[in-house]
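Today's session is about reading a structure prediction critically. Students often jump straight to the picture, but the first step is always the sequence itself: look for stretches that repeat, for charged clusters, for runs of hydrophobic residues. Only then move on to the predicted structure, which in these notes is written as discrete structure tokens rather than atom positions. Here is the chain we will use throughout the hour.
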Amino acid sequence: MPQMSPLMWFSLFILFSIALILFNQMNFFSFKQLTIEKKSKKTTENKFLNWKW
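Below is the predicted structure for this chain, in token form.
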């Protein structure tokens, strides 16, 4: 089995690191997050519930 030089290991590490970072960024920016206004409306509606025990 041939041995790899340290420079080849380093370039392989850089290649996989860049691939991992790009994959994570694509996953992060592919989902649309809910706006704050929609979340605040839901919480205000739930505050005024009258429970009858």
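Discussion point for the tutorial: The mean pLDDT is 79.
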